[in-house]
Amino acid sequence: MFSRLREDLASVRERDPAARSTFEVLTCYPGVHALIFHRIAHGAWRRGFYWLGRFISHISRFLTGIEIHPGAAIGRRVFIDHGMGTVIGETAEIGDDCTIYQAVTLGGTSLYRGAKRHPTLGRGVVVGAGAKVLGGFTVGDGAKIGSNAVVVKPVPAGATAVGNPARLIDPERDAAREQKAEQMGFSAYGVTRDMDDPVSKALHGLLDHSVETDRRLQAILARLEAAGIKLDDTCASSDEFDASRLSKMVD
Known about the structure:
The protein is α/β, with parallel strands linked by helices. Helices cover about 45% and strands about 15% of the residues.
């Protein structure tokens, strides 16, 4: 248990630039405290002391603001940063070296007891603040869940999911972002500065196409008028298309 605690403290100092000392992490980080309580509660749960496990997890929730069901399986060097409002369900499984931020929910959508209702996170997964991962599917190794995303389907290893419902970022562009993230050392909150929502990118593409279509129509009308072809009022008049205003609405 103490070896795992030392690993937890070291991983926090590695991933959180605000951590100034190991003593500060041990005494002031609720995510570390929640994991300590969970290991005790999980041990009681596995030995059949279900009420005791739930009671310990309840005390942990009261003290840390992080709710972890004693039946959840959590790997080594997991970092729950801030953690307030985070909820981890009974059948959830969290792999080694995962990072989970505040207000994350690893929840279930099934009401059947004994079934795998909650998600499985692979190794090195980053779940951004406010994200909801709902269902008994797997999020692959090294995947990233953007802040406030709502994930209801499996996420492949190394992919990035953003939005509600969550969609996967273009793998080619994501690979380029991953190279930049590696240069920085760590991608906090599962996002990078230049990441775009797929829906926003699609809307920008439609806006660009509309602008180009409008430009071509104006050129055709000008050529017709120059050729002496008289146009009626319907063709001659056109509404002003403010692409920049619409573009700002989807940024």
